[in-house]
Amino acid sequence: MSEKNSSKSLPLSFVEGHEKFLESDYAKNPALFADLASGQSPKVMWIGCVDSRVPAERILGAGLGQLFVLRNVANIVPPLAADEASVGSAIWFAVDALKVEHIIVCGHSNCGGVKALSQLGKASFDPMLSSWVEYAIPALEDFDGSSLEDLERANVVSQTEHLLEYPCVADAVAEGRLSIHSFYYEIGKGKLEQYDTEKKAWSYLARS
Ligand SMILES: [Zn+2]
Q1: 155 CA distance to ligand 1 centroid (A)?
Q2: 34 and 46 fall within a common domain
Q3: Residue 99 pLDDT > 80
Q4: Per-residue b or e along 143-164, where b marks 16 or more CB atoms closer than 10 Å to that residue's CB
Q5: In the chain, how many H helices and how many E strands?
Q6: Residues 21, 120: one domain?
Q7: Which of 106, 108, 153, 181 is catalytic?
Q8: Residues around the ion ligand 1 (C-beta < 5 A)
Q9: Active-site residue, selected from the candidate residues 18, 35, 51, 144
Q10: β-strand 201-204 against 191-196: which pairing, if any?
């Protein structure tokens, strides 16, 4: 093998982690896996950031097949007019094909994607990253440059507004079969907050 094509093995902990998954998750409930192989019926879609510190399934305690997950830089839902097929097709599949009943858009603290958004036009970074975070420019409307956390939260609310531009989402919400949620995850505390659109306020996720 030439040096150019050589690659290192995965860290052993991940190989061991997969062995543990087979020995525990699979071995304890092979019927679940057979069932999952025949189809999926998640009730919730999660649109979150790619950040390694914000694992949707872990944070919500979701099992296999329970969460339909879409992750991208800065948890962005491009405006419908952008005609961005990756996010658009996932939303359509979740809402029209799988009939999810909830969509969560979740932002988080210390978000590198939102930091890039805050620096658009001021700092230079990868052109692909620039063109992606430009979809979130509407979130900058009230940003005065002082608080990245405020922008992270505004970005979540802005993305949920974009979500409602998608006809399948708007129809499902109007018919009362789909609810949209704006979440914010505080990495240092491990806690989720939820945005109340009427009170325009955030509070920790709790039983109602
Ligand atoms: Zn992020």
Answers
A1: 11
A2: no
A3: yes
A4: beeeebbebbbbbbbbbbbbbe
A5: 9, 6
A6: no
A7: 108
A8: 49, 51, 111, 113
A9: 51
A10: antiparallel
Give the residue-averaged pLDDT of 172-192.
Answer: 98
Q: Could you confirm whether 49 is annotated as catalytic?
A: yes
List, in order, residues 6 or more apart from 46 with CB less than 8 Å away.
56, 60, 67, 68, 69, 70, 71, 103, 104, 106
Express each pLDDT in 170-179 by its tens digit. 999 999 999 9
E strand map for the chain: 44-49, 67-72, 102-108, 179-186, 191-196, 201-204
Q: Residue 76 C-alpha to ligand 1 middle, in angstroms?
A: 10
Q: Are residues 18 and 89 in the same domain?
A: no
CA atoms within 13 A on the CB side of 63: 8
**Catalytic residue at 171?**
no
Q: Report how far residue 189's alpha carbon sits from residue 91's, in angstroms, rounded to the nearest whole number.
A: 30
Beta-bridge partner residues of 194: 183, 203
Residue 64 lies in domain: 41-204
168 in active site: no
The answer on pLDDT for 118 being more than 70 is yes
